[in-house]
TrEMBL record:
Gene source species: Seonamhaeicola marinus
Stretch forming the signal peptide: 1-24
Record protein name field: TonB-dependent receptor plug domain-containing protein
Keywords, alphabetical: Signal
Lipid metabolism among keywords: no
Record bears the keyword Repeat: no
Annotated InterPro entries: Plug_dom_sf
């Protein structure tokens, strides 16, 4: 009998050991897959937190690997949208990210309505997760042309001044929430309970109270600190319930604490800065044997422990000098593989500290003065660090800048991983190694419910191909159908980009008629021709070969729905600064209106002395487009503006030696010439409907002048399309088997403009008032250039100016720096 029992125990032990190892392998596999298919993060730095109608939004967009914050090797394409109060996208830009960050801008239309806009940024690959993970930043926009415009947008309520906590007079019952450490209160086990207090205006509240049991006995007292946070330690007893009691205006308000479980687990963590003390306890009958403790940072495992002993508690000391900055997740799984406790801890490793070295050529420049600065990064040992940065210089009196405000460091390391809103997050990073701030940040970890990484999603995620794939360029896709039968058919297709350097490619659509060209990387727009033939392309064609319809697909999917509650809110609660900003913006508006009126008067002056030089410049411009050399004959439509209504055939018939009969062309002494549009071969049917309004110039090449082109024995005619007058976008008669359109490429940001007060031709009598003194969207520090030299000019305003630098190193460490200087 005893032998049977012993054998049963051995089998049970082996089975438990096998289950534990199997579960550990599953966890390792899931984490490995998560790292291989890592999420992406996007952050956008803007030059200012708020704007006015007619203003420019200057920004720099950062795209990184969501786990290690290094350059993403998945997506190269990022979308940035500006969304109004009615949740309509008023402007959308598509960018190609060459190296971590890319410059961008929005022009705020004067006819838009003032309000709280949202700037949103994401990649197509990020759409596989919830839109919660998109970067969303709230941007107020005022209308200074209206006297009551300040009432259109009100400052956001934020935390009180964190350097001096002030009690807010409460007139109604506040909201109090309780967060037991690890997730649950367990009878007989000591547990810390985080407390979060807010009023109905979402303000953080400082408040005193007590905890009582169901018999009315006071167990302990509590007080909330900054951010409305507090903490208590409680050992629940069986048969008792607990509640918080607070007195407001001599009225008692009570709040029930979560009900304690009869048995369970507790996960306690004490953050001492350079090390963590982790204590795991349970009162469950099975104890902690075969439990599994795991710690990870954004999905990258940093610690694991499989408990093999039959114990009810254990203690771990974990040094933090090998961990990266950011949120660390501790999760305890029981012997059935279920997550039963979780605790978030913030790691601040001094090894990750990056110094920003900024040297100005003048400590106190004057108005309209030239200033240069040298910028570099260094690690804790003083070694140079490479990375990508962006920088804004703004008027402090008009633009509120504070080290407590959110920035790329707080977003990457806090807000983006927690997904919730943390007001004044920069407060936690102002003083390195400050125990008070570390303590408060630990309370934030204890009381924050939302997080990016959840085990339920990780463990239940299948390895199916993501619906939304990373984009590395632009594609031109669609399908071909029979013009007669209207069914999908395989056809020969030909794509032609009619740019400065023409490009042509052929491929056959598949059995379902589907074709796909790309990926392409080009900026702005490109005139494009897409052709299809039932058989191959031939010089002399039957009309039946063209009986194909071409159907294009949109370049990207519709934008996801916006959730405003998840918008990242900048701290702009300083009413005095906003009033000053609006005043200066009003002055700028009036100065610009006056300047424009003066410019209209100058437009009436006619200058004729440079006619010869303009003709020479025109000839040079056309010759640069004619990559084949000099033509035999040329028709420049600048000289024939009165003939813009003539067709291409009527125009080319004016050239000596060119004969036109019906819809055919011949050159005297030869046969039918080859036709080219912007140096790309075309057929007569493709250009026959063009008029002089579509054409910039026509070159005719004969004999040796045409040797640049193949098969040029009969001569060559090259049509150059007029810029800005897109022939392919016009409502012309379409020929079967061809469509023409303008392909939209990636947006290229405008260059930030500021007056050059040294150059007498670049300077004017116009008064120079700017709230943004300078904007530098992309500063690259690499091994060849470990520092960057930047120059700018001060304006006419004597004020204090803030230099705000944000960015990320090549090793994935976010960087933020803020300092000021005075213009005297």
């Amino acid at each position: 009998m005893h032998k049977k029992i012993a054998l049963g125990l051995v089998v049970s032990l082996c089975l438990s050991f096998t289950i534990t190892n199997s579960f550990r392998d599953t966890i390792q596999e899931k984490l490995s897959n998560y790292l291989d298919n890592y999420p992406e993060k996007v952050y956008v730095q803007t030059d200012k937190p708020y704007y006015t109608l007619g203003d420019d939004v200057w920004f720099s967009t950062y795209l990184v690997n969501g786990v290690n914050h290094k350059k993403s090797n998945k997506s190269k394409v990022v979308y940035v949208e500006l969304i109004n109060e009615k949740d309509s996208i008023v402007s959308k830009k598509q960018f190609y990210v060459f190296n971590t960050n890319v410059a961008g801008d929005f022009k705020i239309d004067k006819n838009w309505k003032a309000g709280n806009y949202v700037l949103r940024a994401y990649t197509n690959y990020m759409r596989n997760q919830k839109a919660d993970y998109f970067f969303q930043k709230q941007i107020p926009i005022w209308n200074v042309a209206e006297t009551d415009s300040i009432t259109h947008v009100t400052p956001q309520p934020n935390s009180e001044n964190l350097t001096e906590v002030k009690e807010i007079e409460l007139k109604e019952k506040p909201e109090i929430k309780f967060y037991p450490e690890g997730g649950y209160l367990i009878n007989g086990l000591a547990s810390k309970v985080g407390i979060k207090i807010k009023d109905k205006l979402n303000r953080d509240i400082t408040l005193n109270g007590v905890i009582k049991d169901s018999d009315g006995n006071t167990i302990t007292s509590f007080k909330s600190f900054q951010y409305g946070l507090g903490i208590i330690t409680l050992i629940p007893n069986e048969g008792q319930s607990y509640h918080a009691s607070v007195m407001i205006n001599d009225v008692e308000y009570t709040y029930p604490l979560p009900k304690a479980l009869p048995s369970g687990y507790n996960l306690n963590v004490v953050n001492n800065g350079n090390h963590l003390i982790v204590k795991v306890t349970t009162n469950a009958a099975t104890g902690l044997k075969n439990s599994y403790l795991l710690a990870h940072q954004r999905g990258a495992m940093v610690y694991e422990k499989s408990e093999t002993e039959n114990t009810n508690s254990y203690l771990i000391k974990l040094n933090t000098n090998t961990l990266s900055d950011g949120v660390t997740h501790f999760t305890l799984f029981n012997n059935e593989g279920k997550p039963v406790c979780e605790r978030l801890v913030y790691i601040d490793n001094p090894q990750d500290d990056i110094a920003v070295n900024l040297n100005l050529s003048k400590s106190a420049p004057g108005v309209r003065d030239h200033v240069s600065l040298k910028l570099g990064l260094a690690d804790k040992d003083g070694n140079p660090v490479t990375g990508n940065l962006s920088m804004s210089i703004t008027d402090v009196d008009a633009i509120g800048q504070s080290t407590k405000s959110g920035n790329i460091k707080t977003y990457m390391l806090l807000n983006s991983d927690l997904r919730g809103q943390i007001n004044n997050p920069g407060y936690f990073f102002e003083k390195d190694g400050d125990p008070k701030r570390r303590y408060l940040l630990d309370l934030v970890m204890l009381t924050h419910g939302w997080r990016r990484f959840t085990w339920s999603e990780i463990l239940n995620t299948s390895q199916e191909t993501p619906k939304f794939k990373p984009e590395i360029g632009l594609y031109i896709t669609g399908h071909t159908t029979s013009k007669r039968k209207k069914s999908n058919i395989s056809a020969s297709t030909r794509l032609t980009f009619m740019g400065t350097f023409p490009y042509q490619e052929k491929k056959r659509s598949d059995s379902n008629g589907v074709f796909k060209y790309g990926p392409f990387v080009f900026m702005d727009t490109m005139p494009t021709i897409l052709e299809a033939r039932i058989n191959e392309f031939e010089k002399e064609e039957y009309k039946s070969n063209r009986m194909v319809d071409i159907h294009l697909l949109k370049n990207y999917s519709p934008s996801p729905k916006l959730d405003r509650k998840l918008s990242y809110v900048s701290n702009f609660d300083d009413g005095a600064k906003i009033s000053n900003f609006l005043k200066k913006s009003k002055d700028i508006f009036e100065i610009n209106e006056t300047f424009l009126e003066e410019a209209r008067l100058l437009d009436e002056v006619v200058i004729t002395a440079t006619k010869k030089s303009l003709e020479e410049q025109r000839t040079q411009e056309l010759n640069e487009k004619a990559v084949y050399g000099f033509p035999t004959n040329r028709i420049d439509m600048k000289e024939y503006e009165s003939m813009e209504n003539l067709t291409f055939l009527e125009l080319v018939s004016m050239v000596p030696g060119v004969n036109v009969a019906n819809d055919s062309i011949s050159i005297r002494g030869g046969g039918t010439p080859s036709l080219y549009m912007n140096n790309v071969p075309v057929q007569i049917d493709d250009v026959i409907t063009m008029t002089g309004a579509d054409i910039d110039f026509i070159d005719v090449l004969k004999g040796v002048d045409a040797v640049y082109f193949p098969n040029s024995g009969n001569g060559v005619i090259v049509i150059h399309q007029r810029e800005g007058a897109d022939f392919f976008a016009k409502n012309v008669k379409r020929k079967p088997g061809i469509i023409d359109f303008t392909s939209t490429g990636f947006y290229t940001a405008r260059e930030f403009y500021a007056p050059n007060h040294i150059d007498p031709f670049g300077s004017t009598n116009k008064q120079d008032i700017r709230t943004t003194l300078h904007w530098e969207p992309k500063i690259s520090l690499n091994t060849k250039s470990i520092s960057s030299n930047i120059s700018f000019y001060t304006s006419d305003i004597r004020s204090n100016y803030a230099i705000k630098i944000e960015g990320i190193t090549d090793s994935g460490i976010p960087v933020f720096h803020l300092e000021t200087f005075s213009v005297e």
